[in-house]
């Protein structure tokens, strides 16, 4: 749809809005500061222990506000605001309104916890909005730059995590020992590290696939994929392994149906996986062997077992029964769950280890319907017309971001990655890129 207000020079464009060479969308310098702040936030958030510390996530919020301010200034400098609309924006606004209703309508059990949850939700919505606007207003080079940025970051973070796991003895950065948790990389818990890598690996692979023959960046990006896959396997997250497998299955289904991949890409996918497995086994054969075997078992371990997760899920559903419409309050799971816990134990359950039932318990049927509608819009937008997307480099990056979101959504059935501020921020940005309006179709590229 197109709506124009000449007096305010505001334009709202729908999903099919093209990128026009020479137009306002071809002004990358004006939005450079916003992209820089956004990239800095994405880099810093995982490194700050996943931004779970009380000081870290407010910094992430400030950075997101700074990026939004730079975007607004850039719009003012170009003389008008062009907003590329997405149906997910409306759902996000309704979800935020639901949280405000809980906060001021005396629904929330703990107003402070709900307030903090609303701030984090607003932060993620800002990042999602910015990702969509910055990429929708850019040339195809912006997608390649994003793919290169993610590739370098995934390789650097993977190498850091592997070296640290071999030499740190349970310390983060060889100096920080958390009070609890199965440390891996900069994260207190290895499952949270796996959640991040699930989003980075597909984008790095897409960047490799769009490099031409003879381009040294093709080999370097494939190396980054190998390192990232090896670190994910080495971290020992069973949910991460299943999520990565789900991403491969979804991509394989699309590629076989479209019959678009070149032969070398099939070899590259298989080779990267085999090399990643070999690297992880070579660095720590004992851990990777035990963890792969435990994917289908119920081992007794210091971390939460699958049996315990199922018990928490059952008790959480009892919360849903008592708070069916508006939920118990965003961020209030930890405060309300002890009343419903049916098994003995001294552990404090901060989350349900299932983002879906926790969201249903905290936001009720109203929030559940909003999230279901958002999921359907995401799937339709991110995976609509994949045969057209795969003819263009920017389409590959968008499809890869959609795959990364799918991986985290699969992992969310047994974990709470969307409650880790750094992972939620990356998810919001990947979601924004995956659902950004397609650029005007330019030059096709061939797989050589």
Give me the secondary-structure topology.
Blueprint: E1 2-5, E2 10-13, H1 32-47, H2 56-78, E3 81-84, H3 87-104, H4 111-136, H5 140-167, H6 190-209, H7 216-235, H8 238-258, H9 263-283, H10 285-294, H11 306-322, H12 333-336, H13 355-382, H14 386-389, H15 393-411, H16 421-434
Helix pairs in contact: 1-2, 1-16, 2-4, 3-4, 3-13, 4-16, 5-6, 5-7, 5-15, 6-7, 6-8, 6-15, 6-16, 7-9, 8-15, 9-10, 11-13, 15-16
Count of helical stretches: 16
Spatial sequence of strands, sheet with the most strands: 1-2-3
Largest sheet: 3 strands, mixed
Helix residue percentage:
55-70%
Radius of gyration: 22 Å
Shape: globular
Average residue-wise pLDDT: 84
Unreliable residue runs: 1-26, 294-301, 441-448
Measured distance between first and last alpha carbons: 38 Å
User: What proportion strand?
Assistant: under 5%
Please provide the count of β strands: 3
Number of domains: 1
Helix vs. strand class? mainly alpha
* Topology order in helix (H) and strand (E) letters: EEHHEHHHHHHHHHHHHHH
């Amino acid at each position: 749809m197109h709506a124009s207000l000449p007096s305010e020079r505001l334009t709202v464009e729908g999903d099919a809005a093209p990128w026009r060479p020479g137009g306002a969308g071809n002004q990358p310098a004006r939005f450079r500061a916003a992209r820089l702040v956004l990239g800095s936030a994405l880099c810093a958030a995982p490194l700050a222990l996943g931004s779970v510390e009380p000081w870290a996530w407010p910094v992430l919020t400030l950075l997101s506000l700074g990026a939004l301010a730079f975007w607004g200034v850039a719009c003012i400098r170009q003389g008008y605001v062009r907003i590329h609309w997405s149906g997910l924006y409306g759902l996000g606004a309704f979800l935020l309104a639901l949280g405000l209703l809980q906060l001021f309508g005396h629904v929330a059990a703990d107003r402070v916890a709900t307030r903090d949850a609303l701030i984090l939700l607003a932060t993620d919505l800002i990042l999602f909005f910015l990702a969509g606007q910055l990429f929708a207003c850019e040339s195809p080079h912006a997608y390649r730059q994003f793919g290169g940025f993610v590739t370098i970051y995934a390789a650097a973070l993977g190498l850091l995590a592997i070296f640290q796991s071999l030499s740190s003895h349970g310390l983060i950065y060889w100096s920080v020992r958390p009070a609890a948790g199965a440390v891996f990389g900069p994260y207190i818990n290895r499952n949270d590290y796996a959640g991040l890598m699930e989003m980075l690996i597909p984008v790095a692979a897409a960047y490799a696939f769009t490099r031409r023959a003879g381009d040294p960046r093709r080999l370097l990006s494939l190396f980054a994929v190998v390192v990232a896959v090896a670190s994910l396997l080495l971290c020992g997250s069973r949910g991460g392994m299943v999520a990565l497998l789900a991403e491969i299955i979804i991509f394989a289904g699309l590629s076989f149906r479209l019959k678009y991949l070149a032969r070398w890409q099939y070899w590259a996918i298989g080779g990267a996986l085999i090399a990643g497995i070999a690297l992880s086994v070579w660095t720590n054969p004992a851990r990777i062997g035990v963890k792969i075997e435990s994917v289908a078992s119920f081992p007794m371990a210091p971390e939460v077992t699958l049996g315990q997760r199922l018990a928490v899920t059952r008790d959480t559903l009892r919360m849903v029964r008592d708070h069916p419409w508006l939920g118990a309050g965003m961020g209030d799971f930890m405060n309300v769950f002890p009343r419903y816990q049916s098994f003995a134990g001294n552990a404090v359950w901060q989350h349900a280890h299932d983002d879906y039932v926790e969201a249903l318990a905290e936001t009720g049927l109203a929030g559940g319907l909003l999230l279901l509608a958002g999921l359907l819009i995401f799937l339709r937008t991110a995976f609509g017309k994949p045969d057209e997307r795969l003819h263009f480099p920017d389409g590959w990056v968008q499809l890869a971001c959609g795959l990364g979101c799918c991986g985290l959504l699969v992992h969310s059935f047994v974990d709470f990655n969307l409650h880790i501020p750094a992972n939620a921020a990356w998810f919001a940005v990947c979601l924004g890129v995956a659902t950004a309006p397609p650029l005007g179709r330019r030059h096709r590229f061939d797989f050589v």
